[in-house]
Predict the structure.
Amino acid sequence: MKNKFFFLLAASFILTSFSFAQSKDSISKFKIGGYIDTYYAYYTDSVPPNNYQKFPVVSPKSEIFGLNIIQITAQYTSSKIRALTTIHYGDIPSSAWSKVYNMIQEANVGIRLSKNVWLDAGFFKTHIGAETLLPKDNIVSCLAMISYYEPWLQAGIKLSYLPNDKLIMCLHVLNGYNIYLDNNKSKSVGLSLSYLLGNKGSLSYYNILGEESPEGTKNKHLRLLNNVVFNYQLTEKLKTSIGVDYIAQQHSNLLDSAKSASVYSAILTFKYQLKPQFGIYVRGEMFSDKDGFLTGQIKDLTGKSTGYIVNGGTIGVEYKPTESSFIRLEGRELIMEKNQEIFIFEGHKKNYRSEILLNFGVWF
């Protein structure tokens, strides 16, 4: 009840504040939007009723009708300033979002420094990844393993430069990797470079570099994440999305703590539009964190300490009643390395999990 009251109070405050700002600037623009996403899911992994599955983000509970997210966004723009606020509620923010400022998805303000340069500060969704937080913004509803371990959110400043209508460049100075509040005295930096390939797609490079150890840690863990994303409309009906990640971190090798460890991952997604309202899609994914600095370490069946190594495949169908709504039915199989039996189904340990997700989304 307390969260619902806060949600309504915050929504009222956003509307009042931005409406007042709009009245003070005759050339300003204010708009409000919303998004609701509901689901039913089934997983072949035994967890207690109403508990989140492993790697919980989208549709994270099995055999129930659930609410992925309900959110309200208010956006204000003028010739000199801009502001954006999004508050959200549901299973996605509850399972995957920061526990601090949990109901705030984004809250930032910006000023125009010159014709093509903006400086924004506050809370943002991450600039990293081939997939974003919300199902409506992705081809596939459920998120790939690398998307789960990439940062979701960030707090800091962003300097944006648009030299022309094809290139977008951003420099980020952040509190850290997937945190709102800093856990040490160091700041992280990130870069975004996106080149638009006409109206066919884009090629982007993103990174983030920072010291991720809590204050007082003896061995520092400098982490560098590199992410390349390619989106392209191959034909009138067929499009693809490719994401590749390479992440390195100091003093994280399981065999020799003086050495660095690495994570690598790839996502390949295709969508074919059968008719204007009907589409089918497939996604393949691979993820390897053998030293476990992102996933954490487990003991496999041989007693060896390791991080997660997993491959996966997803297939789905989408029906769009309107441009701003969808119904998706998709199935997914996650297969861990053979000795990593982290799932339990019908009393037996398994190294694989099957998922079936049904999603309904509407936005305005």
